[in-house]
Amino acid sequence: MSLSIGFIGLGNMGGPMAANLVKAGHQVKVFDLNQSVVNDLASNGALAATDAKHCATDIDVLISMLPASKHVKSLYLGDTGLIHVLAKNTLVIDCSTIDAASAREVGAELGEQGIAFVDAPVSGGVAGATAGTLTFIVGGDDAHFSQAQHVLADMGKNIFHAGAIGAGQIAKICNNMLLSILMAGTSEAIQMGINNGLDAKVLSDIMTASSGRNWTLELYNPCPGVMETAPASNNYKPGFMVDLMAKDLGLAMEAAQQSNSATPMGSMAKNLYTMLQHQGAGSDDFSAIFKLFSKE
Amino acid sequence: MSLSIGFIGLGNMGGPMAANLVKAGHQVKVFDLNQSVVNDLASNGALAATDAKHCATDIDVLISMLPASKHVKSLYLGDTGLIHVLAKNTLVIDCSTIDAASAREVGAELGEQGIAFVDAPVSGGVAGATAGTLTFIVGGDDAHFSQAQHVLADMGKNIFHAGAIGAGQIAKICNNMLLSILMAGTSEAIQMGINNGLDAKVLSDIMTASSGRNWTLELYNPCPGVMETAPASNNYKPGFMVDLMAKDLGLAMEAAQQSNSATPMGSMAKNLYTMLQHQGAGSDDFSAIFKLFSKE
Amino acid sequence: MSLSIGFIGLGNMGGPMAANLVKAGHQVKVFDLNQSVVNDLASNGALAATDAKHCATDIDVLISMLPASKHVKSLYLGDTGLIHVLAKNTLVIDCSTIDAASAREVGAELGEQGIAFVDAPVSGGVAGATAGTLTFIVGGDDAHFSQAQHVLADMGKNIFHAGAIGAGQIAKICNNMLLSILMAGTSEAIQMGINNGLDAKVLSDIMTASSGRNWTLELYNPCPGVMETAPASNNYKPGFMVDLMAKDLGLAMEAAQQSNSATPMGSMAKNLYTMLQHQGAGSDDFSAIFKLFSKE
Amino acid sequence: MSLSIGFIGLGNMGGPMAANLVKAGHQVKVFDLNQSVVNDLASNGALAATDAKHCATDIDVLISMLPASKHVKSLYLGDTGLIHVLAKNTLVIDCSTIDAASAREVGAELGEQGIAFVDAPVSGGVAGATAGTLTFIVGGDDAHFSQAQHVLADMGKNIFHAGAIGAGQIAKICNNMLLSILMAGTSEAIQMGINNGLDAKVLSDIMTASSGRNWTLELYNPCPGVMETAPASNNYKPGFMVDLMAKDLGLAMEAAQQSNSATPMGSMAKNLYTMLQHQGAGSDDFSAIFKLFSKE
């Protein structure tokens, strides 16, 4: 079923996502402050919107992919927000990774105007965006989730329904906080093995086959040389940057605080990633935390 | 190939391990300070040794399964140790979980007398010991590992060669330290989700299918009700006790110190498990760390 | 020099603070949503304002003492804020403990209208408020600090100038974060001594005379029985509540995040205080963290 | 009262300590494996012992100042130990910083032979050793403490009685663990202030006058430029080296483990100091932990 879709925010992630919607046969109208990426997509079958308002007019679905809460709130709310432009029953899908409170605030205000909203943060990186194999973690009511699912399926492979509006954001940062713990913990366990004379590959194989098994050991070993395709073996070229993991951990710490949750392991990981940033590794892949435990 | 095997230490783990060797057709001579477990095994086909020395005489292989380093050192070394009793070329397999330094010390002293030694700590718990599906992580030279492998295969399923003598112990505690980090991290991530209105099962499913995936989410979910067969859903009946995890983390902290390794996540986990013990949960399953993050 | 002072927020702290201004001879107009505390002060020489706007009219100085950022922002800013009521050149002294960003925001907006602003969070508790011995940590420009100093001197003993607007808040939470670290660290050091057979008083005396010396050992020993006058010896009756320390640590974590500061010790303390809250100790004195490390 | 004193271990600390005993009028017989330091002291009035046994003969008191437990145990115990040489009623004062268990072991074995023993670890560094202003923290029974006090008074200023044998060691590492927490906590609090625009000196002054006050703020500010005489203002030239603090924290972690104490703050500090060592700062003053939190 072909839809008329607006897409705002055509960065490293948003660009290829919009391109996949074009390929899937939708009519896609695109907007970004960077005109050159708009032109690129326009030359590949998208319509170039003249501004955000234009992009949000005469569409079934509006997708946004922006850097942070303030951009999302400013796009939709306030005197100049799209809330005054969007037609009733339009479905808004915000794919940005932002704090859940902001997602709930935007969703509630749009809802009062009869505009549907789901938050749908992604994981899978630029590679997944390009290949159309992203994971979407969606928050919103059942009917809106069903609608969104059809569109998201043209950009991704796994589409989860986490709960009400905001739940997509919460589930994503719970996952990413846990991922940072797995990465830090796996790194220090391998380093301790090395420091005691073990071979990193042998130890990794043993733990992968034992109760230490986790996503980082299976697919993303942080020790250089253990896994040929992992960023660690490619000079920690990202992949998923330290700076982005630090941003997600910031959102996790905010969520922990707002809900008065105890997160000693997550807080530890947050501080380790902050120290890694201070050492100048912000643009490295997040598995570079391995180096923080190294003796050299 | 049937062997003559001595087995010392017939506790919750050692008893069923020895029984499996009997079933496999070996001639098994057993000893423990607790006479009743000796009698049990004797009535099932084992020979009852009169003491440790008797148990260590006229055998091909000696297996020991003892609580701590001091028991292992005192069994083998010193004026009254089995080092004076064991025949040259006997293979000693110590399945106890002890510090690597002690394993190396015992292995080196036995080696000087021409007695072969491997350290082969296990994981898999009482259930694995009974079913004969234990995992053994072995340290020792290649030839001794090959010999040991044949015997261990009658008690377990996965047999890893981690490296030289002591490497079995190091690899096991690296794994168990990582496991404690996975369990603590998974617990606090799920609790933060719950505190923000998410359903624990939905969140667990999402993370299992995402980059937060790890052994605890797959097989041992710490949140009551998510996984029917997990200890969490059975009032945290172990399983693998908090006290045992605390012991293994103690060995991990010792190894970290001796090798001057930085283990911020492992140290955090160690302190959390110590606080859990102080709250009276020492005999609960180690997934009970979930309760430490609960708001009650 | 007698001034005309408005005072909004007459809680446990604000009430006695306003009373001290009356005693010092100022003309004090007071307002609170709780009418009974207004009446109390009125019967002791204050003028009862009918509402916040009334309280902010015809005065030289306005002081506010409110629970959180949202109350402060809503009092001063927005369509109904006092920003539309306060006369140019009035000096606003906000004694609330809030995040620095909010303090800067309020200060900047008032400044644009020619209204002077300093943030002046306090320490010293209800006892200090009553005795007029509070410590004020002030942020604002030099001229405004000088003005504020004269008023604050009638409510407190130590008045520090930390820097520009917002610096008062930052300095206070840096101090309180450090205090939480001192309290947690002192508690675990004493507990470790006790667990190794030392007498808590003897150990405390030794550390007080050595390089472990700190404010908590000198004035506020967390171990029951060591210091007769400390909350620890009075069943942890506050004093300064766990809940309030947790709030301040929340502000510290926010400041750390906004400035991308690494605070591993502060984060550890924050998580320990959160766990203490979850154990039901929120209303105990903050030295009750001592119990978190206890074996019983 | 002049005594005949043997002194073994004439390093950076032991050398000046022995020299002060000579100055105080005692007859001092000295021994070290390094013959040149023996000669130095001999040329200043000490007697040069030919070996440890000679040093331990015909004396009232034997003092030892050695690097680690293994040296102390090997000096006193075993087939070649001084236990076979020392006369009954000799008082042995071991000033080494070692684990309490080893101190208790040595004390117990000597005690069985009627030889008195106290552990008396020091603080105050080389400067204190030279000036005769060391602090001694003593473990042993009351009578032996009284005896020791007279000798120690010639080398130090503060002499504390912590409890039974081993208590000196425990009290010292409790204090030094707490000191590491104060230093790390003070460093991150000041860095957070700086990152938020505060002046380090102003913030330090405020916290010194408030509840954040502690030994490091008063005497040893870790921020360069705040305190002219502190190592921080002298390129972190020690003072007390990172490597030595890491050693003491290692002893603290051992004591925590043996007594099953929860030490989350101390463990955090230990890991931070280990990471600092890995960054090549082992020979810097321990206040260099300030740099670990810096943004560069």
From TrEMBL, chains A, B, C, D:
Pfam families: NAD_binding_11, NAD_binding_2
Occurrences of domain 6-phosphogluconate dehydrogenase NADP-binding (ranges): 4-163
Protein name (Swiss-Prot/TrEMBL): 3-hydroxyisobutyrate dehydrogenase
Coiled coil regions in record: none
Domain 3-hydroxyisobutyrate dehydrogenase-like NAD-binding: 166-292
Organism encoding this protein: Pseudoalteromonas haloplanktis (Alteromonas haloplanktis)
EC number per UniProt: 1.1.1.31
Record bears the keyword Oxidoreductase: yes
Entry-linked NCBIfam families: HIBADH (TIGR01692)
Reactions this protein catalyses: 3-hydroxy-2-methylpropanoate + NAD(+) = 2-methyl-3-oxopropanoate + NADH + H(+)
Tree of life domain: Bacteria
Broad EC category: oxidoreductase
Alphabetized Gene3D superfamilies for the sequence: N-(1-d-carboxylethyl)-l-norvaline Dehydrogenase, domain 2 (1.10.1040.10), NAD(P)-binding Rossmann-like Domain (3.40.50.720)
Gene Ontology MF, one: 3-hydroxyisobutyrate dehydrogenase activity
Keywords, alphabetical: Branched-chain amino acid catabolism, NAD, Oxidoreductase
Pathway: Amino-acid degradation; L-valine degradation
InterPro entries: 3-OH-isobutyrate_DH-rel_CS, 6-PGluconate_DH-like_C_sf, 6PGD_dom2, 6PGDH_NADP-bd, HIBADH, HIBADH-like_NADP-bd, HIBADH-related, NAD(P)-bd_dom_sf
